[in-house]
Input
Amino acid sequence: MAQPGGRHMYLGVAGTALLLLGGCASQQRSSAKVDKEWVARVPSEQLGDVRQAQLAEDQAREQIPRARVAAQDAEQALEVARRNEAAAKSRHEADELAKKSAQEKGDLAAIEQARGAACESQHALTLAQAETAWRRDAVDTLKSLEVVRERELDVASAQLRQTQYEAVNANEDVRAQDLSAGDFSSAVADARRKAADQQRQADARLQREEQAKAHWEQLRDQGYGGSGSQQDK
Output
């Protein structure tokens, strides 16, 4: 009777041991990253590709704050457009009230004058609304481009790690044997795929922004808003 229980106990211990061994085995393979100390042991004359990759990563990193500042500037322009739209709406509402008042009084001259003012303020409001729509799309575009720059940095970083691995491996550092060239290649390919996907999203937003801007410019050129219309920034 004791034997079956003993057998179950043995299988349980063996299973636990296999799990532990499996866990150790999974931890033996390092992530797709090279220790800086390993790279430091590579002769300087063999690090040309690494230096180029490092420069590319630095340049990609510099583009992120530039993209962020551009998005912030676009947000400020959007806020100005929103204030202008609110002011244009208030003016139009006041002109509509003036027109209604003139109509109630039956003053023909006042009615015609009020109608003209209401029509002009309506055009100004239409132009302001079109500009707000364009500025809003511009913010979306630039925020999307900021993410593009971040994904491009991911690509540059993955390529840097790949060139570091190649340099260490070419230097016959035995520690590179625990790394897989395929892991580095996969990391680069994955980063490029994500960057391409984000670029497509940014391109779609840019196309929408350009359409909104073209609509605003068309209204502006048709004389909407009169002399008070905003100029392109």
Observations:
- The radius of gyration is 33 Å.
- DSSP finds five helices and no strands in the chain.
